[in-house]
Specification:
Largest sheet: 4 strands, mixed
Low-confidence stretches: 186-192
Number of domains: 2
CATH superfamily of the largest domain: Translation initiation factor 3 (IF-3), C-terminal domain
Radius of gyration: 29 Å
Shape: rod-shaped
Oligomer: single chain
Mean pLDDT: 85
Strand content: 25-35%
Structural class: alpha/beta
Number of helices: 5
Helix content: 25-40%
């Protein structure tokens, strides 16, 4: 069996001689329109300026090429991607489970956990699990969920009102925007 040396190129941007389209629209290094010309003329113009001809919009008709420093272009692209990854926040759904006959201390303990989740800008799924004949008393579960929503009203808002899903009653809450912003700023305070 022959080894294959064809590793896929991570970057598919065509530059300089790899641009094989006969005519291209050219934008110069300052952003001004040069016009539509043959790719060989555009490449010659880029070489005269000591820069590269980079295809920035291959799907346009004719394709748009820009005269620029390709190394600088790649560097700026990687910086933009890194910044986008850094600012991206994944919101996860945390679940808090109750029973219809939950004790006050247990209820408060679980609501405090839900408060921490909401302050961390996560969504919270509240679940009341019914067993056997407890399903007949769905109003107890609704009361528990409404009480939790009332307590957490300062940090969260109801995203989906309480509803039955089989033998469980479910309610979703998400963090309020103003609380999420405050908690992000508080984390960056200097410690003494």
């Amino acid at each position: 069996m022959r080894p294959t040396n064809k590793a896929p190129r991570p970057d598919q941007t065509r530059i300089n001689e790899r641009i094989r389209i006969p005519t291209v629209r050219v934008v110069d290094d300052e952003g001004g329109q040069v016009g539509v010309m043959s790719s060989s003329d555009a490449l010659r113009l880029a070489r005269e300026r000591g820069l590269d001809l980079v295809e920035v919009s291959p799907n346009a008709r004719p394709p748009v090429c820009r005269i620029m420093d390709y190394g600088k272009f790649k560097y700026e692209q990687s910086k933009r991607a890194a910044k986008a990854r850094k600012t991206q926040h994944r919101i996860t759904v945390k679940e808090v489970k109750f029973r219809p006959k939950i004790d006050d201390h247990d209820f408060n303990f679980k609501v405090n956990h839900a408060r921490e989740f909401l302050e961390a800008n996560n969504k919270v799924k509240f679940t009341v699990m019914f067993r056997g004949r407890e399903v007949a008393h769905a109003n107890l579960g609704r009361d528990i969920l409404e009480k939790a929503a009332e307590i957490l009203d300062d940090v969260g808002q109801i995203e989906q009102k309480p509803r039955m899903e089989g033998r469980t009653m479910v309610m979703y809450m998400s963090a309020r925007r103003d609380v999420a912003k405050k908690s992000g700023k508080e984390d960056k305070k200097p410690t003494e």
